[in-house]
Amino acid sequence: MDKAKFFAGLRARDSGLFGTSLSQPQVEGTERIVDDGQNRGMALRQLAYVLATAYHETGAKMQPVREVGGEKYLRSKPYYPWVGEGLVQVTWEANARKFGATAPGQLMEWPIALRAIFDGMSKGMFTGKKLADYIAGDRVDYVGARRIVNGTDKASLIAGYAKAFEAALKAGGYGGQGAQTAPTPQPAPPAPVQPVPAAQEPAAPPALPAPPVPMPSAKPTSSTNWLARLITIVLCIFRKKGN
Fold it and tell me: Fewer Cβ in 10 A, N or C end of the chain?
């Protein structure tokens, strides 16, 4: 978004907002609101109506303000000490706590003040009506959108402010997208680990063939002994005859 063109649009004589100049607090406050809307990705016309509401509720200061009136006057309020504070005049303790305030005066701080105006208007936390009920797509009802905060009080006047902020946002090229941050580089995934094969024991040497089992020698039988003796006798007879 071109902030220079945006603020030039707000300073234009025909904008009907700040005249031809803005004070430093007005510039800083307006930037905070625009930046928060952009970071939320809020649509242009919805942001224009948020800016218009802040412009009206703060008396064009564009800074969190406290309800007007002396201490004696404020003490007479049934919601005291939780008097109107912020970019939208949030009153009553229960309402202030919805946006994170834990003590009176905390809606004067920017983080809580921004949360109150954006969450309150976009989520319907003020009256049950929300921005999308009146401003969505091609539908734009700036007059009816006043019911988001406070019935129909000054509805037409605030609708005129919204149109001026819409023109300035368009001049600045508002796109409704927050600043894009570069993605954090992610480490490369580790290379897949190949399983290490289990160590194999050396193969056992081939088994040697078993030595042959010696066969028991045959014992001479009784018939074999008889034949041997007979042969011996015959040989002896022949020897004697030869003599």
Answer: C
